[in-house]
Amino acid sequence: MTPLINRPRRLRRTAALRAMVRETRLDAANLIYPLFACPGEGVRREVRSMPGVFNLSVDELVKEAEEARRLGVSSVIVFGLPERKDEQGSGAFAEDGITQRAIRAVKREVKDLLVIADTCLCEYTSHGHCGVIKDGEVANDPTLEILAQTAVSQAQAGADVIAPSGMMDGMVAAIREGLDAAGFTDIPILSYAIKYASAFYGPFREAADSAPQFGDRRGYQMDPANAREALREAELDVEQGADMLMVKPALPFLDVIKAARERFTLPLAAYQVSGEYAQIKAAAQMGWIDEERIMMESLVAIKRAGADAILTYFAKDVIRQLS
Question: Which of 248, 281, 303, 316 is catalytic?
Answer without folding.
Answer: 248
